[in-house]
Amino acid sequence: MGALDNQGALRMVTLFSGAVKGMAFYPASHPSIRQPMLELDKILAQAHGRGPEVSWSILDGAMFSEGHLFINPPAAIVDMTNRMMEKGIGRITVAAGLTFEELQNFIRLFSAKGVGYDALVERMRQDSISHIRLLRQGEENIESPDEKQAQQEDEGEGSHLVTYGQALNAIRDICRDIERGRIPSSAPVVRVVDRMVGITMQEPSILVGLTMIKDYDNYTFNHCVNVGILSMALGASLGMDVMSVKSLGIAGELHDIGKTMISKKILNKPGKLSSSEYDEMKRHSELGAKIIREMEGLDPHIAQIVLGHHLHFNRCGYPEWAQKLPFNQMSDIVAIADTFDAITTLRVYQHPINPRAALQAMQKITGTFLDASLLASFIEMMGKYPVGTLVRLDTNEVAVVYRPNPLDEEAPVVRILIEGDGTRLGVPREQPLVGQDGARYAEIVAVVDPLLKNIDVGKFVLSGIY
Fold this sequence. Notes:
five-stranded antiparallel β-sheet
């Protein structure tokens, strides 16, 4: 967790940017320079009271600070981003112990035009500015020894599961606040989506396996996190920029929070809803959009995505009054993720279908409920045998698909759960179906219903041994 919340981080970089810009017009003693620097100095001192340093970085052309990506940044943030990129700077880190004189001198040096990374670092050395460190653009991921050790402790398959758990807790806290009549904080969900975005932009499918976690008792929370992950994965695979992928993650994770204000008797009814009950259920998208508009730190277009996720591709869905409003494809992306996770999940009123069959079923409702072109991209991303599909091999082994193989959709990486002789493995064995030398281990001969084998794929994922 960063030393500053989203608003504090935004204010810090905005003040720095303003002071840098003002240096071109006024002396350092001028109130237009001194006042923002005094406030900036105060914010830095508060941040250093919570941690040894504070920083801001450039990530894929966007500003990133203290675990927060700035969505639709104001002009001051855009200006600072451009200045850092022009100077070849990837990260600015301010350590505890910084004096006001150091801060003032650094802003003066930074504001000079035509001074690149190397020259700026040398001038900082000459002026004894030791509490501010710069990293060259492209080297932003270089950590100090302590940071590197912390990262190593957090790496491995378990780290993604921890991130999933943090997302689950964020949604749970938001829903709890709503039930208590409070306006929830956006900070926890924004923080965890920031982390997920970094993972997803590197490899869109890497978190998709976690969406096989299907907890009936906590369906709403798991479903929201899963829809966020699937929405981000599809956005990233479509080549969307990091800010758009983040928006999809936040909207996906918040898409059903309006259900918190719907009667649990209706939400958990095992049979078909009555006409009046269905009308009440349909209110959840607009209730969710209303809640999001009241939450600080979220862009209004997040609410618009949530409002439109049940309008359908043909815009004949609900809420009816919103059918003529302008919506972009982000609502349609969330709708695809929502549909996929919903129909692959056991509910009181439905038997789940396997991921492969789910994609086939979804193709039947394109042009009306779902966007055909987006679904085609989603199917391509998921592969012929989507992550989480239980399959039988021609060796009679039963395995779960663990990673798609972009070079051969017939041969994903699997994890063996049941040996050919029927022995169930305590720890799944990872097995590529095609080796690097091209040798084939086995062929998939059938898709298996997990219920028939008494296998809960989600439990394997949740156990950390998936």
